[in-house]
Amino acid sequence: MNILERFKKYVAFDTQSDSTSESVPSTLKQLKLGEEIVKDLKEIGLEDAFLDEYGYVYATLKSNSTKKFPTIGFIAHMDTSPDMSGKDVKAIVHNYNGGDIKLNDEFSIKLSEFPFLKDLEGLTIITASGDTLLGADDKAGIVEILDAMEYLINHPEIEHGDIKVAITVDEEIGRGADYFDVDGFGADFAYTMDGGPIGELEYENFNGASAVIKIQGKNVHPGSAKNTMVNSIRIAMEFDSLLPVDQKPEYTVDYEGFNHLNNIEGDVEYTEMEYIIRDHDFEKFTSKKKLFEDITEFLNKKYNNAITLEISDSYYNMREKIETRLEIVELAKKSMEDIGIIPDIKPIRGGTDGASLSYKGLLTPNIFAGGLNFHGRYELVPLEWMEKASELIVKIVENSQEFQ
Q: What is the pLDDT of residues 70-85, one digit of tens each?
């Protein structure tokens, strides 16, 4: 099965994760795709492939050489973002020759809004139908890994050490590494195939935290509300107004951090707000969290302790760990250059499983999977970029002998 066929098959599985769920995985529907991946891994020759009790898929391509190679891992995730429906995804293939890409009668990917399209002319673009996300994040990464493993099996003249494969669950809700069996995986280092456009190579990411603000108001009839009503919605608005305007995600780029109001629900009586807090610099990250605490304290004095704040860290910047062994990054960089890809090394304005895994002892930079416009109806991926990512995995394996 080629990359396109397998990709179309995988995106048809609804695998959205759910941050409100306490189960592992957070949605049982992820297991259905996990079972299919195990089946496919076994069919291509990775006979030890299995699905563990938490929904993770693991497999090993055994060494075919007596030479000394590092054990390299390649990792992707099967869940898709809760931000938009992943049900009944219909992959559409476009032989793109420029202009807008029509998804349906209502929505198009417009060149005027997404000027990078001009750089994709002549490529085979895959989109969804405009009613769902596509799921290239990160089903593109999964099919690239399987395609590379199948290539290596069919080309035994390419010597290699043990190669480990893992497909995780719940990455999109920050839990992808929570139950990852690092010791059982047994890799010396790994790469997540979870980046964006061709050439991306990343070993820095945000420090990330989530903040939940719960506001208890007091609702009485507005006709007799004077000096009695406490409107929780207005307190929520006031809270948000006290955060720096220039630190919203829509005003930040590169290494600039942000505070993002991700969700708000409420009425006069009770309102709940959810934020994510991000910064590459740990001191600035700490200051951002402290500001949430200071605002809470200030408003609680004003509104008689109406606010409860809960902050929890999600992940940390993996640069602190990986910069001690930058030869892992150099291996990927050289391999890109060897197959004609210009490396684009930059910080991730987000997080990956690799961040958490690096803090668990498995150093895991991130490599492009090829997709663009993740988490929404305008998501797309060029087929040629997925094929190039598969080629890159093979080249990393080939070059790994020099790593020693």
A: 999 999 999 999 999 9
The three-state secondary structure class of 213 is strand
- Exposed / middle / buried, residue 152 (Cβ in 10 Å: 0-12, 13-18, 19+): buried
Q: Is 47 exposed, middle or buried (0-12, 13-18, 19+ CB in 10 A)?
A: exposed
pLDDT in tens, 111-151: 999 999 999 999 999 999 999 999 999 999 999 999 999 99
Instruction: Check if 171 is active-site.
Output: yes
How many angstroms separate the CA atoms of 188 and 400, rounded?
12
Helix boundaries (H) for 61-170: 136-154
Backbone angles phi, psi at 164, to 5 degrees: -100, 140
Q: Which of 40, 138, 150, 171 is catalytic?
A: 171
Q: Which of 79, 138, 172, 200 is catalytic?
A: 79
Helix axes 29-44, 3-11, angle to 10 degrees: 160
Confidence (pTM): 0.90
Does the annotation mark 279 as catalytic?
A: no
Instruction: Determine if residue 321 is left, alpha or beta; phi over 0 gives left, psi from -120 to 50 gives alpha, anything else beta.
Output: alpha
111, 100 contact by CB (below 8 A) = yes
Strands lying side by side in the sheet with 92-95 = 92-95, 124-127, 380-382
Amino acid type, 77: H
